[in-house]
Amino acid sequence: MSVSKSFTVAISPCPNDIFIFGAWILGLIPDLQGYRSRFHFRDVDILNQWAGGKSCCLVKVSAGLALDLQEDYFILSSGAAFGLAHGPKLVTRKGLESRPEIIAVPGLQTTACTLLKAALDYAFEALPMPFDQIVNCVKQGRADAGLLIHETALIYRQYHLELLLDLGSWWSEQAGDLPLPLGCIIMRKDLGLDLMARAEEQIRCSLDTARAKQSEIMPLISHLAQEMDTHVINRHIQAYVNQYSRDMGRSGNEALQKLQQLKTA
């Protein structure tokens, strides 16, 4: 009797990742032939750190970091997070009159932080922390401003915060019609091209199944989401799960090249 190999997958617990991978996680589709998949859920900044250790087979990382890891990882064509009308948002408390000098960010290696450094014309102190702690950090005055991603970027007004900079809009000014690359799925190159192609198709199959059986995926999404409101969860999925999640294609690859240019400018 053959023994299945372990295939470790590390993604964030955010609604877009769980929607894409949910059918795979829940066993609604067959596992990769010859493998037993094991899933880990961590904040994006932790996932970025894990990728450096190469302990996982497949891992979701910030798009900017994915570009830096191409010697050891394939960037998969499926599973990525691209923003169309939405992106990270720089917010502050009402009444701030000076430019923010201390900014809470969801990790120094995140795409959001990369974009903010490119967008601002001055040096600032970046204060890294888990993304779900940024709102309270700003409200308590421990930072002048906060860089919001995921669900919180969609509902910052509910926290009585003011928008200073919409990085989705800023990206559109720089890149035109190209989608905003936020996160990518990468796989270790030592696992081979054949398994990479199979993993890409597995993700597409999982996404297609989620769209057909969304009611079976939603309880898992709600269980893991930071924002429990169903309306907010659905807005998050609509914002970051799109045609580029299934296949980034030429436009997605061009967007990654544009991000690389901004990183090195």
Question: Brief overview, please?
Answer:
The chain has two domains: 5-83 and 180-264, D-Maltodextrin-Binding Protein, domain 2; 89-175, Periplasmic binding protein-like II (D-Maltodextrin-Binding Protein, domain 2, 3-Layer(aba) Sandwich). It is an alpha/beta fold and 265 residues long.
What are the salient characteristics of this protein?
D-Maltodextrin-Binding Protein, domain 2; 265 residues; globular; 2 domains; 5-stranded mixed β-sheet
Verbal overview:
The structure is a single chain. The protein is built from 12 helices and 11 strands. With about 260 residues, the chain is α/β, with parallel strands linked by helices. It folds into 2 domains: about 5-85 and about 180-265, Periplasmic binding protein-like II (D-Maltodextrin-Binding Protein, domain 2), CATH 3.40.190; about 90-175, Periplasmic binding protein-like II (D-Maltodextrin-Binding Protein, domain 2, 3-Layer(aba) Sandwich), CATH 3.40.190. Strands 1, 2, 3, 4, 5 and 11 form a 6-stranded mixed beta sheet that branches. The chain has a 5-stranded mixed beta sheet with strand order 8-7-9-6-10. Helix 1 links the parallel strand 1 and strand 2. Helix 1 packs across helix 8 and helix 1 (about 15-25) crosses helix 9.
